[in-house]
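In response to a reviewer's request, we include the raw inputs and outputs for one of the modeled complexes. The two entities were modeled together in a single run.
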Amino acid sequence: MDQFILQILNGLDKGSAYALIALGLTLIFGTLGVVNFAHGALFMLGAFVAVTVSNILTLSHKVVDETRTDFLGNPLQVDVPYLYDLFGQAAGDTIIDWAVPISIIIAIPIMVGIGFAMERGLIKYFYKRPHADQILVTFGLAIVIQEIVKYFYGANPIPTPAPEAFVGSFDFGVILGFDPNAIIYPYWRLVYFFFSVVIIGAVFAFLQFTTFGMVVRAGMADRETVGLLGIDIDKRFTIMFGIAAAVAGLAGVMYAPINSPNYHMGMDFLVLSFVVVVVGGMGSLPGAVAAGFLLGILESFASMSAVIDILPGINQIIIYLVAIIILLTRPRGLMGRKGVMEE
Amino acid sequence: MLGLEMKDFRLLLIVIGLTMLAPFILNPFPEGSEMAQFNAGYPDLMQRFVIFGIFAIGFNILFGLTGYLSFGHAAFLGAGSYGAVWMFKLLSMNVLPAIAISVVIAGLFSLLIGFISLRRSGIYFSILTLAFAQMSFALAYSVLTPITGGETGLQLALDDPRIFGASQTATGNIPVPSLFGLEMRSSYELELGSWLFTFNAGYYLAAVFMIIAFYMSIRIFRSPFGMMLRAIKSNQTRMSYTGLNARPYTLAAFVISGMYAGLAGGLMASMDPLAGAERMQWTASGEVVLMTILGGAGTLIGPVLGAGMIKYFENIFSKINETILHGWFAFLPDGLENFVVAMVYPFIGKGWHLTLGIVFMLVVIFLPGGLVQGGQKIAGLFRRKKAEDTKPNATEPAE
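The model returned the following structure tokens for the whole complex.
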């Protein structure tokens, strides 16, 4: 039983990342009808916003420390972050420690801006082109973004720690009445899960309870009619693209402490997220979220040693296997809408 | 000639000429000169040109004609090279059975995957092929280690049976792949003045295969079968209304292009007898997509050009480092030199992928027909000026 709960928990954080990326992909696909292969790159950019913010916060200048000497006997030079000068050492340390949460605030406008630029600058011209062309041009864009990031940040993963307060693990077992240490779960992953639930909830609430969201939903259902009613639906869809980019970016920011960001992390997630979208049903937002968590949890169940003993290698292929079975038996995915990408 | 129209026959002759004379054409700069680093006429790279050319020609039969975008074609190349290496291990070091088995294995594998994936079209087809390829990659990496060698890859060993050949040579080494005794790595070097030309046995074997592959692709393009495949691309619904079932045609195209990929994999293993799972990874599939689109999907010669260009960039362009750049721009004033180098450096050397990505995007945006279409447009500009006084309607249909 404790194993069972542990695996569900383990699946949740990966599932959250899948769900967030798949949600953004579906938002773009459902509104603009564009298959965005560069969405993984947006996720990666988000993670690098966190890296950049923590780099900026730790910008330092050299100060000669009179009290200490280096091995040659000269006075030692120490790096002092500018933040110490501004806020004093204690407050400066706290700010640096909380670099990742701070990046969330900074990432939102940056990612929305990037999303706008992408849609207005490139994607706009591809609405009328075949899906294959959309895949190809965004695939090219993903390569370009990756290489730019690689040029500035190098090819190695950059560790980006979570705030001190969230280091360590939470002992779930004790609460649920199991032995101590039976179910331990890192705090940051718990934070990630709740964060993604909040984001997903916010996106759904935005679409469901605001006038803007209502218009967007109407546009998703029948774009032409909404246009005929005199609403500038293109503008709203552009904003949705920005929101989708921000969702992917936030997923990336928060994922940075879990997995040190490197330039190709986006591609790794993208392939899986596409599978998730297809399993959930192209164009269905609840489907994308449900399939994200489902596949994340399935993946972690498949990596239990009891399962691997019976079916070796299943943990490597479970997601693809599920996708193939779903696509062949339920062509529209779990919650796919009728008439979306049928041909 | 050979069942081809005059225009296609001429194209075939050009391709034969270019591949046969490649050691000369690719080595235009004398040995030891400053420009020698741009010489591509060494065996390893020439082999890669033709092998990836075959791979791209095969991919083009599927994508260029039917419009089905497969993101998992590298799986067949990987399967083919595993098959070839197993032949080297079990049978003999002769390359012919190895290449034959690699084509057969890739054909069967693509029949299986194609049969399932082709039940869907559009993006679903892309995702299905991607999923299958990633699955094969993951399996080859982990569970199938006894067959695939896992992380280290499949390699030859001294104690392999090799029924029709020797397990090891007289000197106790692992034998090398050969064609009835002609070793694939053996080369003849010709020195003309300060030029050095290398004629490699393996390259010429692969080149012969590429010419055959190219000839077959012309025949497929011009056949009624090729016409059917184009009909699927332009309007599958209308085709099914006329009472034709598209599935057998797409499946045949898929299997043919899978066999081309297997041939490429078999040749790759013949040049260097090892096979690894990374050949199946989806980035490798993405590479062949890049090659085909860059050169021009749906054209005959485009994929070969694209493959050559990407491999050239990958091997030659990527070697240029900052010192060489400073050498080039040394004639500029110091400040300007550093500035120019700083501007250019991100795009070449290790950053060649960035250039590739940008060029690829530009091609997709402005030239859906790839470099071939670009060439035709430029040629058309010149021709129109001449033709204006003779024939007003001299524009040829793009092919």
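As requested, we also summarize the result in words. Chain A has one domain: 2-53+102-329. The mean pLDDT of chain A is 84.
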